[in-house]
Design a protein that fits this description.
- The structure holds 2 protein chains of 2 kinds.
- Chain A is built from 14 helices and 16 strands.
- Chain A is α/β, with parallel strands linked by helices.
- Chain A has 2 domains: about 240 residues, Thiamin diphosphate (ThDP)-binding fold, Pyr/PP domains (Rossmann fold, 3-Layer(aba) Sandwich), CATH 3.40.50.970; about 140 residues, 3-Layer(aba) Sandwich (Rossmann fold).
- The longest helix of chain A has 18 residues.
- Chain B is an alpha/beta fold.
- Helices cover about 30% and strands about 10% of the residues of chain B.
- Chain B contains 13 helices and 9 strands.
- Chain B has a 5-stranded parallel beta sheet with strand order 4-3-2-5-6. Chain B has a two-stranded antiparallel sheet with strand order 1-9.
- In chain B, helix 2 crosses helix 6 and helix 3 packs across helix 6.
- The two termini of chain B are about 25 Å apart.
- Classes of the chains: A alpha/beta, B alpha/beta.
- Chains A and B meet through helix 9 of A and loops of B.
- Bound molecules: iron/sulfur cluster (3 copies).
- One iron/sulfur cluster binds next to helix 13 of chain B.
Chain lengths: ~375, ~375
């Protein structure tokens, strides 16, 4: 069924279709509509789930941890400051190997206060062990939620679905809403091997000495690295059923591309247009939407850019004292594997629009054209005061 | 159960959880303080002139077993139906439930227990071969006779008047009906195996090893006192129960306690061990020992079982198992046969949660391994 729907509404509808059983969430701009919609669905009896009202995001995640440990499918949604407040529990969810799915509406962290799109909130949670997926459009929000549960429950790790604040949360698009039957066919009920069970008691999150601690972490790392493959497979199966693919790495005109514009989130659309425009000028340009940041899709990424000489990397974030986080990740992925030059741009933080022209100009600068921004450390900052 | 050996990463659980049985982990070796189930003295019991096990008796009523409650009382008190009607109930003044809403109607509950049918089978010691006479059948005399009977002596109560009961026969009818007094007297003589002779005449002390005299409640020169003393005439060294100023009806529990104490003195005089001893209980429980928030407010009830259920069982374990529910290591266990709470010391690590959670302060942490 086709529907004109906003990103936040889509996230709620996707949770309903995924038949989540427990929702514990705290409203925050720009995610609020998702929480309102979900409480409506549950209140009206259209979703058979428990809504746990909480006093903070920390408690929201704690409630999801408990719910998931008892074997229910748990969902939450947050943004920015709320995500930061959850930090401790994010480690708990991933370390506990609990397949929770969370929507995060990417928004700048204060101070100064700013409600608009920025990726520092989720990227600064890279090391918590969550799978991180960044949506490029509203259809992606719907579809990736199903893929997320399917992967999470297979590999026993939580997934954070990221939506660019306002660009995606508050934009309505025409999307295809699958029927409940179709979703059920793709996503079977959650039936974990272990769950809190009074008839079969175990201590969850028990104490563990140095003798087994590294081995447990080793196993978790092994299973986290395998997520790239698991997601790819789940995406392929999704594509086979629904005709839409949502792979960890999504390329556009990469086959012969010498310069590749790399983005995460909604900027992927503008990057495709910029690549097309550059092609008109005779530049062998392509674009790459890095949908998965954790685990980093090493194989697919290396393969996708194997022919490139220049990578123009957009960061809507900064790791203070280093550089843009995505640029850092890419350098680490390509070190010793590729001769391509990585040009890191910091642009679009705090809600600055990323347009096709801006990305094309950044690419021209990378290829020796006119300067667009100010070099600071390893990054070029766009649209800052001189 | 032995610790499971893990030889490869893939044998580890995916989730960080304990696998199989964890009893191999003897966490008891971590313990510094040890939980001990130890009752404190309930303030109602402390205030009772007879020291009756009030919370235990109330617990039986709450369980719907008044006969068991009666048996508990009659180990301390031969006439619970009388105290349950006449006593000035100092217990109620001390009831800690008042800190929550309203105190327990303890005296009515005592009366309820006394209404249980039949006579409890209390343990009666083996026959001593000793013969004892008790002159006067006031509550003190009856109590002395009752405990001496339980001690295995052959006891006869001699009452000059028509009815046993001493000054209780003069109680206002509204307070103590003659039938009730008769029933109580019958029951106590049945339980202790003693004989009561009314309209007894002087000169029946032949062959007695010991004679006791109870004229306590009467004025020394009254006709009643003289009649009782006349019965003891001829005995060289009678054991006389006395109290300064006598007893009012409301003080019947004190009279009974006097008789109970006299039974112990008589046993000593006969060269026999004491028949009654108050058990050693800890300090009196105070409101600080209780977790008042644990208990729901409830109005006073006319219905005995419902009213009994309001008792907080101060300082007295009633096997509520809150400790068992709270112990993170499942170390507090109910021993159903023994009716006690037992601590698994192989695994108890001494965290003290059970003690903190016991809503009545009946589980203490002792400074011992
Ligand atoms: S609540 Fe029960 S145990 Fe506590 S003082 Fe009152 S009657 Fe006694
Ligand atoms: S919690 Fe209950 S069962 Fe445990 S010691 Fe206290 S009164 Fe007894
Ligand atoms: S709660 Fe359990 S482990 Fe802790 S002191 Fe009590 S019995 Fe021991």
């Amino acid at each position: 069924m086709k529907k004109v729907i906003m990103g936040t509404e889509t996230a709620a509808l996707a949770a309903v279709l995924a038949r989540v059983q427990v929702v514990a969430a705290y409203p925050i701009t720009p995610q609020t509509v998702t929480v309102e919609e979900l409480s409506d669905y549950i209140g009206k009896g259209e979703l058979d789930a428990e809504y746990i009202t909480v006093e903070s995001e920390h408690s929201a995640m704690a409630a999801c941890v408990g719910a998931s440990a008892t074997g229910s499918r748990a969902f939450t949604a947050t943004s920015s400051q709320g995500l930061a407040l959850m930090h401790e529990m994010l480690h708990h969810a991933a370390g506990g190997r609990l397949p929770i799915v969370m929507l995060n509406a990417n928004r700048a962290l204060s101070p100064p206060w700013n409600l608009y799109c920025d990726h520092t909130d989720s990227l600064s949670q890279r090391d918590t062990g969550w799978i991180q997926y960044y949506c490029c459009d509203v259809q992606d929000v719907m579809d990736s939620t199903f893929i997320a549960y399917r992967v999470a429950e297979k590999v026993m790790l939580p997934v954070m679905i990221n939506l660019d604040g306002f660009y995606l949360t508050h934009t309505s698009e025409v999307i295809d809403v699958p029927s409940q039957n179709e979703v059920d066919r793709y996503l079977p009920p959650y039936d974990p091997a272990n769950k809190v069970d009074v008839d079969n008691p175990s201590t969850y999150g028990c104490v563990c000495g140095a003798d087994l601690f590294s081995s447990l972490k080793y196993r978790r790392q092994m299973e986290t690295l395998a997520v790239e493959q698991a997601w790819q497979e789940a995406s392929d199966e999704f594509a086979a059923q629904f005709g839409r693919s949502h792979a960890p790495v999504q390329g556009h005109r990469l086959d012969d591309a010498e310069v590749v514009i790399v983005t995460i989130g909604t900027a992927g659309g503008a990057a495709q247009l910029a690549a097309d425009a550059l092609r008109q000028e005779g530049v062998a340009a392509g674009s790459l939407n890095l949908a998965m940041v954790r685990p980093f899709p090493y194989q697919s990424f290396r393969q996708a850019v194997s022919g490139a000489k220049h990578l123009v990397v957009l960061d809507r974030d900064v790791s203070f004292g280093a550089e843009g986080i995505v640029a850092q990740e890419i350098k680490s992925c390509l070190y010793g594997q590729s001769q391509a030059q990585v040009h890191g741009f910091i642009a679009g933080v705090g809600g600055m629009d990323i347009t096709e022209e801006l990305l094309a100009d950044m690419t021209r600068e990378a290829l020796g054209g006119q300067k667009q921004g100010l070099q600071l450390g390893d990054s070029i900052w766009i649209k800052v005061l001189p | 159960m032995a610790k499971k050996q893990i030889d490869s990463v893939m044998q580890l659980p995916v989730m960080p959880l304990t696998i199989e049985d964890m009893t191999w982990n003897k966490t008891g070796t971590w313990r510094l303080l040890t939980p001990v189930q130890q009752d404190k003295l309930a303030p109602c019991r402390a205030a009772c002139p007879l020291g009756q096990p009030v919370p235990q008796m109330i617990h039986q009523l709450a369980q719907g077993d008044p006969a068991a409650g009666l048996a508990l009382l009659m180990a301390y008190n031969p006439m619970p139906g009388v105290t349950g009607r006449l006593c000035y109930h100092p217990c109620q003044a001390k009831c800690l439930r008042k800190e929550l809403d309203q105190g327990i109607a303890i005296q009515s509950l005592e009366k309820s227990a006394s209404l249980a049918q039949g006579a409890p089978a209390l343990e009666r010691r083996a026959d001593t071969g000793k013969k004892v006479a008790v002159c006067g059948s006031g509550p003190a005399g009856l109590a002395a006779a009752y405990f001496l009977g339980l001690a295995g002596n052959s006891v006869t109560v001699l009452e000059p008047g028509k009815t046993a009961g001493g000054f209780l026969t003069q109680a206002k009818a509204g307070q103590l009906a003659p039938e009730v007094l008769a029933q109580e007297t019958r029951r106590l003589s049945q339980v202790a195996g003693i004989t009561i002779e009314t309209q007894a005449a002087p000169g029946s002390l032949e062959g007695m090893d010991l004679v006791l005299v109870d004229a306590g409640a009467y004025a020394p020169d009254s006709a009643e006192a003289k009649a009782v003393k006349a019965l003891a005439q001829g005995d060289a060294e009678p054991l006389v129960m006395e109290s300064e100023g006598g007893f009012k009806a409301s003080q019947v529990a004190h009279a009974l306690a006097l008789g109970r104490e006299a039974a112990n003195q008589a046993q000593a005089a006969l060269g026999l061990p004491a028949v009654f001893a108050q058990p050693e209980l800890g300090p009196v429980a105070t409101v600080e020992d209780l977790t008042l928030g644990f208990f729901a407010p409830a109005p006073v009830s006319e219905q005995a079982q419902e009213e009994a259920a309001r008792c907080l069982s101060c300082g007295t374990c009633n096997l509520c198992q809150q400790c068992a529910l709270s112990c993170p290591d499942a170390c507090c266990n109910l021993n159903e046969a023994g009716g006690t709470i037992e601590i698994d010391l192989y695994h108890c690590k001494g965290c003290g949660i059970c003690s903190y959670e016991c809503p009545r302060g009946a589980l203490v942490m002792e400074n011992q391994p």
